[in-house]
Amino acid sequence: MSIQHVKGLTTALLLGILMLGPLEAAPPYASWGEENLTTIKKDLWLSESGLYAEMAPDENGAPSHPSFMWGVGVQLTALAAASAVEPGKYLPETKAYADAIQVYWLKHNGVEGFDVQPGPKESDRYYDDNAWLVLALAEVFEVSKEQKYLDRAIATFDFVMTGEDDKLGGGLYWRENILRSKHTCTNGPAIVSALRLHQLTKDGKYLEIARRLYAWTNSRLQDTDGLYFDNINLEGRVGRRKFTYNTALMIRANCLFHKITGEARYLEEARRVSLAAEKFWVRENGAVADSGRFAHMLVESYLELYQESGDRHWAEVVEKSLTYVHDNLKEPNGRYPVTWERKMSPRREESMLLNQASPARAYWVAAEILTGKAADDRKK
């Protein structure tokens, strides 16, 4: 073949590509996530303890106390997701933080679990906080391959399950010290935690726990539109507010049930609930009408549904939402507002670890699933 012939074929190929239109590159999720984590470290890192502060220093430079456990869990998942994409850069930091937070681990009345703040102190433990830590530690185990993190995830799950009794027919409470109500924000992540532990240990008891909690949550806390109410108190009165994260974790649960069992009904339910959530919370411009601490979990559930179903619609929803968050909500100082629907006047409270780690988690999960190894594996 002559050089002229090769040049002709190359020109024809290029013209064909141009006629089809430009190939759209995915947003630089990893770069966004890196910027986000860099800002978090600059604003909130407590070098002496290896922990993160609850919020940025005040106007006098006085540091905040260490983050409450909810923020700890989201930050650890953000670091674990970053480690899945760039292990050389983030895995040492992820492991160090996972080890540092053991100062939150508290034994009380013979039962161990993560407290809301580092000890020594009076016990104040939340079952939902601990369910988030099960998920975080399971991911740290996956990226590090170190058994101690799986052991900690299992021990943390054992604490979560001490929150179950037979009042209202089952289900998990929200807070150890105040046994007044049972919340979707505990039961949803507990179901997902049980399914993840089943995947990692192959122990059937976790699948049975997941089935039991799933049936209870659907019977007590799911609305007819597929979305989930917030809680039910011991008198049987339902708190009817709806938050993205409650529905999101049940979408993830359905995706995992489908992956584990192969039963089509779970994937059908994940689709039904996801469409209802999109209609309820996702705006035409990509904004999600909820706080970022909740909304990032809906984004992640859509990514999980995309992986499980192959339906590109959910990847497109995520791309539009995260692009909106980055391009319209990010402040010049690198921080993000509390809500993911619109900009707000900057306040110190928005610097909370929970608020800043939420977009970081979403960016890094999107980087892995839409542009990283997971995306490459789907193309094979």
UniProtKB/TrEMBL annotation:
> Which Pfam families does UniProt cross-reference here?
Glyco_hydro_76 (PF03663)
GO process terms (BP): carbohydrate metabolic process
Task: Write down the superkingdom of origin.
Answer: Bacteria
Q: Which PANTHER family match?
A: (PUTATIVE SECRETED PROTEIN)-RELATED, MEIOTICALLY UP-REGULATED GENE 191 PROTEIN
Task: Please report the name of this protein according to its UniProt entry.
Answer: AGE family epimerase/isomerase
The lineage is: Bacteria, Pseudomonadati, Verrucomicrobiota, Verrucomicrobiia, Verrucomicrobiales
